[in-house]
Amino acid sequence: MSTLVVLGTQWGDEGKGKVVDYLAEQADYIVRYQGGNNAGHTLIYENKPFALHLVPSGILFPKKYCLIGNGVVVDPKALKEEIAFLNKKKISVRGRFFISEQAHIILPYHKLIDGILEEGNVKIGTTKKGIGPCYSDKVKRIGIRVVDYLEKNVFLDLLDKNLIEKTPILENGGINIEKLKKEILKDHKELSKFIKPFVADTSLMIEGAIKKNKKVLFESAQGTLLDLDFGTYPYVTSSNPTAGGACPGAGLGPTEINNVLGVVKAYTTRVGEGPFAVELFDKMGDFLREKGGEYGATTGRPRRCGWFDAVVVRHSVRVSGIKHLILTKLDCMEDIKTIKICVAYKYKGRIYKDFPSSRTVQKYAKPVYEEMLGFKGKIKGVTSFKKLPLNAQKYVKRLEQLVGAPIDLISLGRKREETVEVTKNAKWF
Ligand code: IMO
Ligand code: MG
After folding, report:
1. Residue 343: which domain range?
2. Between 300 and 158, whose confidence is greater?
3. Is 426 within the bounds of a domain?
4. Which residues line ligand 1 (CB under 6 A)?
5. Threshold 0.85, pTM exceeds
6. 277 and 297 both lie in a single domain
7. Tally of domains within the chain
8. Which ligand 1 atom is nearest residue 222's CA?
9. Is 428 within the bounds of a domain?
10. Ion ligand 2 — residues with CB under 5 Å?
């Protein structure tokens, strides 16, 4: 048996898409277990970058099975568009792409409510894809699952109940309920037919794969600091991207998970609102944004940038039991004179080595920095760890020490080849 969870250790956008694509070569099944099309996983295909939002990143390999677990929220319209886009690229998904019948469906009112809430007094800076409102319905026990969407009478009944429940907020936002219902019914006719051939009991499929000794990779969306429990609440997404989330999100027990791999960016970014101790408002922030192309793959928003935050990554390693790390975007730190690493936070004279839960401390704490000499010259294109400038090697080793997990690989670009081994022949499966 061989299963691996791959997750983001910061605020998302760590480069999970490339890493999963890299590892998918060794896997038989790639499974998404939470989130929805708020994710944006950028991959290189035929030398051009393109972003996947819902379909697992392993889809580019023709023979891999790609599953959407029950913990994911699925916008059938967005899914149809993504599959059409893949088909246009001659990537066929038939017979190897499946959606859990228990996954919850995002409907147009979820997106509308997401937008209305963002205009209100608790702006989170969401992707406005309807993610939070859909998960809210799941928790309120009024959600519509894929299996419900396919049973017409069940769907119509649930739709009416949901529209009644949501009328006040929608009407307040100037939405015409009758018109909205018509649109949903029209979509339903077309989209239920479209998704039907992809629907399966994916938990059973995973059990079967594990029994046959297949390699199963669980791909998270977002990152630990956007986790509903362990992130910067309330400025988080509405699911659990941490490794434990793979169990309820895909339908297997914790004893079936063999290994956990974290993806970590050589510096830190976040999109949306919320605390971000290491944020840089100066030229260095702009440098990282431009050099790293730090603009959202889903919304195009410029990402907030800062130095590496070891408090955050240590927290991630701990709450997900991460045993291995892959470091991305080290190439984007070429030519910086002095590099800073945040090793602790300071608030009202107290030093915090562990990530604090208090909103006040998260918001007002100042980073305690350690400085290192930067590395000069081109490191993009370097093919072995030993050939990296000495200061770059030292930086990587210092990060490992601070966060408490080994960095096995370093990514120096988007292409699969632009990857350097630190641990020789590291095995994760
Ligand atoms: P990947 O998979 C970065 C952020 C949003 C917002 C918060 C809540 O590319 O790492 P939501 O729409 O999920 O309710 O928004 O979470 N967010 C992401 N940030 N990368 C993502 O995905 C994200 N998905 C959601 O910006 O702050
Ligand atoms: Mg993203």
Report:
1. 264-421
2. 158
3. no
4. 8, 11-13, 38-40, 124-127, 129, 131-132, 221-223, 226, 235, 237-238, 271-272, 297
5. yes
6. yes
7. 3
8. 10
9. no
10. 12-13, 40, 297
